[in-house]
User: Fold this.
Amino acid sequence: MIKKYAVSNHSQVGAHFDDKASISFNMDLLKHIGKVVFPYGLIAPSMMIFLIFMIYPILYMIYLSFQKWNMLSDKVFIGVQNYDKLFVDPDFYQVMITTVKFMVGTVSVSVVLALLLALYLNQNTAINRFLQGVIFAPYIVSLVSIAFIFMWMMDSDLGLLNYILNLLHLPTVRWLEDPKVAIYALVLVNIWKGVGYYTIIFISAFQSIPPYLYEAAKLDKSNRYRTFFKITLPMISPTLFFITLTGIIGGLKVFETINIMTMGSNNTNTLVYSLYQYGFSFHKIGYASAIGVVLMVIIGTVTFFYFNTLSKRVHYR
Amino acid sequence: MYKIELVGIDKAYEKDLQVIDNLNLKIEEGSFTILVGPSGCGKSTTLRMIAGLEQESDGEIFISGKSMHNIEPGDRDIAMVFQNYALYPTMTVRDNIEFGLKNNKIPKVERNQRIQEICDILGISEYLARKPQSLSGGQRQRVALARAMVKKPSVFLMDEPLSNLDAKLRNQIRTELIELHRKLKTTFVYVTHDQVEALSMGTHIVLLNKGKIMQQGPPLEIYNDPQNIFTAQFIGSPPMNILHAKDFSYLDGFDERVEYVGFRPEHGQISKIRSVNPSQEGLELAGQINTYEILGSEILYKIETKYGSINLKTFDMREVYEGRVSILISNDKLCYFDRDENRIYEKAVPRDQKICS
Assistant:
């Protein structure tokens, strides 16, 4: 486009200067620039928000991870010392293992349980509609309240869970105090909160499968299990993929439950909680930022591989 | 022996919503039976009950002499082609065709052989690795057929399989289906609302209305010898012209029961002058041509007469009539119906020919 204008201008210069042509040429150029710039102008506001609240903090976190800073002192550039310390710290690996345990436990049990519940609640009867509402309820309750209620229920001496175990003459469990059990107790709370949400999404995915596919399967003499694994599951694969991915990311970023129920004690310290501790309890901002960067890289890598390996097997309509 | 027998079938979705009322139907082995009727007449429901996808409220269905009560669709030795093909979108064409075979535990060698055979017949071998959504409507239709054929069922059930195709493809696949039926010599039960499909494909037509059989028989019999006004008007395009017999003085004293008189659009002879052929006896009407449509090999006229509007079809392409015309329908082409719209078969010979204008 630009080239065309230039050529036409040149030829006009050759055949005496023409005022009118020059003006129209300038107007054309302005119009052209306007056309190019206008769309960027339109997306500018949202881009600004995105840059200020998403990109800038990430870059600033990366910058901070190379500094020594306690929020009062001057920032001192110390290179990769924060990372050096992080990678030789045995606690860090413990935190990583705990995080993965939490994530895998929550996602796998939630997804399988939600699938089973969704299969059960799929029939549109009055009682099922009621149960769908019931099962979804924990999702709309604040996680903080849930955490407090579960803390009370999981109390070793006065809690409801141990009371029930006692009634059944079963050995009691020190839910939140036993380092072997505590993280799974937290997993339980998160499953309880999230499973209803997953279930509702699965039910809606099931209901988007056209019924004639099941009729065709019946005529093809497909039994229940084959129908589920060969038709239902592939048909909801986009939903399954999305739910699992967001579950994995959410699991890696868990914070509130731990902050309220155990404060990271008894082997329940996860990446985000230890980041919070280093940042806001010990005021080691640089070190905390380094943890943040590691978390970001882990989530990025997991997401990348997840997309690359599984998205080919997902059926999008 | 009949291949499929429906004995006293009732179907009601709700208490007051009787879709099918005491249906008795016998489908002969090797026939191409068409269930045809307007939408909501229960033809699809009937087919789905034969398939076992719908439970009959009362009565019994027999396939190959065996009662189908509580027998799963997969165990009925049938295959069905759906209107929207119902291909499994997550599977390749090959997996779609193979799914039923695998479920029936047919060994791999035979599976491959059958798939190869069917795909050669239908010309879909090159799409085997593709997913259904990358195929055109006609190709999908063929895959759906292949999926049904590969099971080698004793009955094919088809629920309006051509209605999602464009007109040209529909004609093509219609011909292919007729050939297929000749080749396979299996029983086909085919549901359609299109009387052209019914007439052109069927060896036996069952015309349904409001859950009841109006008439059944071979296509020509249904067309030439309608037993009631519904059949006369549903089969044939344009429908049979039906006029109130009492309007015609020439039928006076003929048969008290005659309420309606009808004739097919192609049986009326049209002419400018009164009485086309005075020696021929028949009903003569005068009218004003409203519209005409030239369809290439025939012309359709819509003519306004004193007794109502009538359709006329001529194959005489030499002249297009306009304005006032007279129409003669010879006596042997007239059909008489009683008050309940049922045919009266007694030879109807009017006392003498009169011109009704």
